[in-house]
């Protein structure tokens, strides 16, 4: 177990170190490049082939010289392509100097920047330079040439329009002619240089990992800043969402608890109950996630928030799809957890298995889903997975620690319950012995009185009675430290007792014994029947002037044993039947069978005491 823990620690440290030791790209210009590339309307596009420039229209010699210097400057920035004037080659970058604006088919003037065609990258371009604005001097036009040509090298712009207020860049979003006069600065040159370096795509993948999260956060903050900050819900979106989310969560827990109580009675199959509860839990989780995401976006992200619906369809579809994927995995986790509970007895083994099932199993499932969706494309998939692995391992560690303390507490509870059960058993044994020790002296007292009263009258009967009494005590001594005896042995002991009493009462005592032969070998508590018969003799026959009759009947009624003793003596008094013998029988039944037995008496249609006990103790 220790080796496993050490191996996991080394693995975590190794993954963390490898993620930290990855190449860190400089913030500038890569943060700007990532922002441009994540513009949902216009990501980075570049030229794949060399650029050959041709000048057309009303340009001057001075214009030509300025453009030549610009092309040389830009050519030094582009490692993977060359930029030069066309000679014999067919030009793919035309710069047209015009006095008359070009009209599109709809009558509108074409863009001041011109038109551009794309394949995998840019394939051709026309840049229009209009000399129609009298306020524009030749110097101003020439000043903007460099930035206009440079802008045609890299397609894309910063993600959020208000960025133009915060920095001067040719990559600001275009609003009319808003950035046509922005000069090409050092940061813009660095962006172009990195885009046209060898291995740009690989470095871009690393930059996405390094900067994307922070860039998205900055964009969202900028959008929120553009909103009306006087609105309370814009300033405090989390506070607005918290209370409704809490209510939804509590309602979910309430309904899940109600459903659990309902199906626990109606559905006996554990796997079906778990499936229903898991499905309901995922449904409420889906509702909660959709509400929080949609409402937060409604409060913070959209610029035109008045026209944006609170519940977003994309959130519903994505979260529902995720929950459906999770559903079968919950069954898998449940199956593994049950196996762990049954198979492992050692607390440390259980804790280790829970750590593995919570940590590695979800990560393997996540890894499988990721590879099914994305395949083995490039390293951009692995850094987020390594971070996710660390997060899952943290959750697994916390759950393992919590599980350890739960198992430890449960073991203590079980240990204390076992001790309490043992103490209760000892108490029951002591009480049974006490009852049996009370029965024997009580019976001995009655028997000796019978012998004493018979001795002056008939010595032979006295001797016979003493021998029978000896047999009774032999039965008792042979069963010392035993709690049970068979129905057959108990009945034989009762017959011996009645024979003793018959010697005393003579023809005044008549008795019958009926026992179901199938019950003779069943175990019942020791001295259960004798006190009932003794009670019938003492409180019934002895007070009857005529012939006394006692009937003992033992039979099976459904799945219980019925023991009845009837006599023709005086009726039982109202209320609880008094008499030491019956009280000991009642206590004996309570200690042996608990609430699974009964003791009843009746005077009509005949005087009778009835005991019902289970077939087995």
UniProtKB/TrEMBL annotation:
One of its GO terms (molecular function) is phosphorelay sensor kinase activity. The keyword Ribonucleoprotein does not apply. Keywords: Kinase, Membrane, Signal, Transferase, Transmembrane, Transmembrane helix. Residues 430-509 form the Signal transduction histidine kinase internal region domain. GO terms for cellular component: membrane. The keyword Transferase applies. It comes from the Bacteria. Residues 1-21 form the signal peptide. Pfam families: His_kinase (PF06580). The chain crosses the membrane at residues 238-259, 271-296, 316-333, 353-373, 385-407. PANTHER family: SENSOR HISTIDINE KINASE YPDA. This is Histidine kinase.
